[in-house]
């Protein structure tokens, strides 16, 4: 009897291996041959799951976006404090640092390739929606309702967390979890005064 393989599961496994290679070596260094070697299979098998390197790399970018959103959503669903929710994206764990490295590897494509631009915009909208829900909950406002003040504060918080996290990626020895959290907590206190 032939082995039944879940196509999406296997495709995801191959893309996860490519994710690790991109985090370690960057986009240009990743080849089907390397991915096949990491998967313990042939390049023909990798080609079975992905049409070309571009298709595989785009899935790696999508994985990075999904992983972070999944962590944020899980922290929010557990009703964690705002600072704790936001901390799940900081590059202070190996997993988060690798995700940030993958993002950095791909952001240059977002302004020249439509598929990356659209994925980046989609992820930005999802992030803004989640940050708005986090702040609406914090401030006792209706979650999911359009609230211009909450949206403006959410945008500032996204910029703060992203900028702080980027500093943590570029100079990890200079930024501890505590120092990153302190800066975010300071911004949260500033936002709180504006509500």
From TrEMBL:
GO terms for molecular function: DNA-binding transcription factor activity; transcription cis-regulatory region binding. It holds the Pfam family TetR_N. Coiled coil: none annotated. PROSITE patterns: HTH_TETR_2. It comes from the Bacteria. Transmembrane segments: none annotated. InterPro entries: BetI_C, Homeodomain-like_sf, HTH-type_TetR-like_transc_reg, HTH_TetR, Tet_transcr_reg_TetR-rel_C_sf. Residues 8-68 form the HTH tetR-type domain. Keywords: DNA-binding, Repressor, Transcription, Transcription regulation. Residues 31-50 bind DNA. This is TetR family transcriptional regulator.
């Amino acid at each position: 009897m032939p082995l039944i393989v879940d196509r999406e599961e296997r495709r995801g496994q191959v893309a996860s291996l490519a994710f690790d290679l991109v985090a370690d070596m960057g986009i240009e260094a990743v080849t089907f041959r390397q991915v096949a070697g990491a998967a313990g299979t042939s390049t023909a098998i990798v080609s079975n799951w992905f049409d070309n390197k571009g298709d595989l790399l785009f899935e790696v970018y999508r994985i990075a976006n999904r992983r972070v959103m999944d962590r944020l959503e899980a922290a929010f669903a557990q009703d964690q404090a705002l600072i704790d929710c936001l901390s799940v994206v900081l590059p202070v764990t190996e997993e988060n640092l690798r995700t940030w490295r993958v993002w950095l590897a791909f952001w240059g494509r977002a302004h020249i390739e439509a598929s990356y631009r659209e994925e980046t915009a989609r992820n930005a909208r999802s992030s803004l929606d989640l940050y708005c829900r986090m702040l609406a909950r914090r401030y006792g406002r209706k979650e999911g309702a359009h609230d211009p003040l909450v949206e403006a504060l959410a945008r500032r918080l996204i910029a703060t967390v992203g900028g702080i996290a980027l500093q943590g990626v570029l100079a990890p020895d200079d930024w501890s979890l505590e120092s990153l959290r302190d800066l975010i907590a300071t911004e949260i206190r500033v936002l709180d005064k504006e509500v």
